[in-house]
Amino acid sequence: MGTHSVKSHLLASLGAYLQELQESGIDGLSLEPAAAAILEPSPAQPVSAQLEPQQDVRQPDSAPAEKQETLEQIRKNLGDCQRCKLGATRNKLVFGAGNPKARLVFVGEGPGADEDQKGEPFVGDAGKMLNRIISAMGLQREEVYICNAVKCRPPQNRNPEKDEIAACSPFLLRQLHSIKPEVIVALGTFAAQTVLGSKEPISRLRGKFHDFHGVPLMPTYHPSYLLRSGGNSDSFWTVWDDMTQVLRLLKLPVPEKSRKK
Ligand code: URA
Predict the structure, then answer these.
(1) pTM: predicted TM-score of the whole model, two decimal places
(2) Which site among 29, 73, 135, 171 is 20 to 30 Å from 11 CA-CA?
(3) 223 ligand 1 Cβ < 6 A
(4) Which of 129, 132, 127 is nearest to 113 (CA)?
(5) Are residues 29 and 96 in the same domain?
(6) Residue 105 shares a structural domain with residue 215
């Protein structure tokens, strides 16, 4: 698929995002012991140490070699972005963070208040939950890449609007094409629907791989949803089941977690 059709795909998806943007910033929730057990960190093992000879499962558009951009170039091209009205109200643009050669990329929805202050994705409470998921997978945050469907915080954490997504989506695509991950995890309804151009609820999208221009993409619940679920261990196990599929696809060990009832 060419760059033009990739853009068309994203533009076609713009109508699909109108599900709620899960808000971050929930604090003070203690988890049920069973839920907490799922998120016990597993001994971290550098992904690089466990790689099979790199399989190129990724065929994200056969961009000519000269079109392969670095993340730095994409960031530079964004500049002090005012392509949509979020530019006027944001504090810091949140580009993304992590390993530019990550095998695994997490795509969230959009920056919240903490991220807007720091200019980094997933640094608030939802970020702490995401860190726990990553550790439970036996990985370290630095070895994956984390970004969002939109790069600037919508005022009062409202849902991003169509024109804002339209302005921002091409940059997410360019980031994904630059990183060429082997697997993408879309966190929450908004990210999954935006990236896949779907109107399906996350409960229907999650649990199976979807094709994103040749890259397997696993939608799962947003970390904020886990925070909101009040420590209900079922939702933790659901996310864990999705993440075990991701680990298996990456041919990484799946840490044992015991399901105490
Ligand atoms: N929620 C998101 O989806 N992204 C962030 O960066 C923070 C919270």
Answers:
(1) 0.80
(2) 73
(3) no
(4) 127
(5) no
(6) yes
